[in-house]
Amino acid sequence: MPGYRPIVYVRGYAGTQGAVESTVDLPYYGFNLGSTQVRTGPEGSPEFAIFESPLVRLMKDHGYHDVFARVADGSVELLNAEERRYAGDGFPQRTLWVFRYYDATSRRAGDGERDDIEALAADLGTLVEFVLEKTGAEQVYLVAHSMGGLVCRSLIQHVLKDAAPARIARLFTYATPHNGIHFRNGLGFLTSVRDLLGLNDSDTFGPRRMREFLGFPGDRDQKRLNELGGHYPPEQVFSLIGTNHSDYGLARLAVGPGSDGLVQMEHAYVKGSSRAFVYRSHSGPLGIVNSEEGYQNLQRFLFGETSVQIRLEGVRLKAALRDDADLRFLLIETTVVIRGEETVMTDQREEHGSALTVDADALEAGHETLFRTYLMRSRRPGPRDRYSHFQIRLRILPHYVRNRRILRDHHYFGEHLFQDVLTVGIRDDDGGAGRLVRARWTGLDSELPGSGQRYPRSDDIRFSLHSETLDRGDLVLRVRDEGGTG
């Protein structure tokens, strides 16, 4: 169950020795870096907005304390007089630990030699056990950027295996290449060269090495490298995916659109995990880690009291559309915003290349999960309001394909089969026979009913889609108590 537990941060890949030295020079390994501007649209117009960093926000909003430690020769060394600092009351559970694995790679602080990812995973396991012992916590949270997520997965799948759920409460990853790093069509030879030479362990992101450090057999299908191998529940993982490739470095030219500039969206999540899409690049001043969107998803996933799974079910097109042989797929655009926040939780759009592509026949016969949002009582605009409110902005667009080629002349940009906004208020558990929910298809929260309808806790909450292009279809909410920070 979520709550306040120690948090261990694991940073991403430093490709050059200079990047290693710069990383080691930062006490928080870069997780302390914030931002002062955000992109506001496809034109790239900047908006000035200060974000202090996820570490500072966790300290300010949730009372966490920093602790500095590193692992060397199988033991943990505290670096900043923490033993004296916490000698009286002991280490609090609300502590932040940064896994400083590049200290050993530094020519100034270590021997300049890189450890492979299996060794890093083992050292991370040593740090986790140390943190549990010192804080008295039963589990830790792991928060990782880029390659750091692969280090965490190697710990879970290669080191701890079936013991992982007892140690790791949740895993949150920013822009992690869970299925490797791939280059755009026509540049596949660069992947082969990278994996052959393995300069500075860059082959870590290729299928051969991933199979090894994730504990998969050598013939494992490379399209299934984003699976956890049965060792850890994927619903305890959150994958934050960047959709802005234009604000990254030269790597964006090799990776191309449909990525964060380094990791393609289709390879940036654990299969079965919660996931969110945000218009951010892989790293840098406009990167995914130092973003308000990233922080909001992080704190809610770790500390939220209630989760709401949002899915589409049984969507059936009108007969004239079903008879169109070229309309076999649909694009689903989903934006979720929470009242009181100045940012979106997820934003999947056609123009960003992040809209969900679904088979029309499969969606008619089954369902598709769009997003899982997490609600926090402490983040409501009014302290007396017992409802948490959020909006789902949904669009369904036609996607015409013939002979595996998209027929762009069949579809005008912005043309849609369905478009509407569902505003939802979910009340705290009041001990009744169900949960009070007030909701309506509307763009204005003020138009919501004054009181909620009570739904049995075991039931899905359904809202019919109304459109001249659809025979039927439901937007379905599945609400679950998560325990929260209590």
Automatic annotation (TrEMBL):
> Domain GPI inositol-deacylase PGAP1-like alpha/beta, which positions?
134-180
Top-level taxon of the source organism: Bacteria
What GO molecular function annotation could you give as one example from this UniProt entry? hydrolase activity, acting on ester bonds
Q: Which InterPro entries match?
A: AB_hydrolase_fold (IPR029058), PGAP1-ab_dom-like (IPR012908)
Q: What is this protein called?
A: PGAP1-like protein
User: Which species is this record about?
Assistant: Aquisalimonas asiatica
Lineage per the UniProt record: Bacteria, Pseudomonadati, Pseudomonadota, Gammaproteobacteria, Chromatiales
